[in-house]
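Q: Could you fold this chain for me?
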Amino acid sequence: MAKTLTAAVHQEEDWYVARCLEVEVASQGQTIDEAKANLIEAVQLYLEEAGEDAVEESPFISAFQIGAA
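A: Sure. Below is the predicted structure, expressed as structure tokens.
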């Protein structure tokens, strides 16, 4: 059964870091697409060991501002 998970991607120097928001798994790559592909592989391996029940409900994602009042 296919699942849709969420990836948060940010850049650290020359690498892109992709983190799955539903499970505590992260990966990296030299491009965004490579980081996401590596994350998919890492999550699949994680779920093979931990089981499908390890996936948490979709997180609530919200933007916020800091700085000037």
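A (continued): Helices lie at 32-50.
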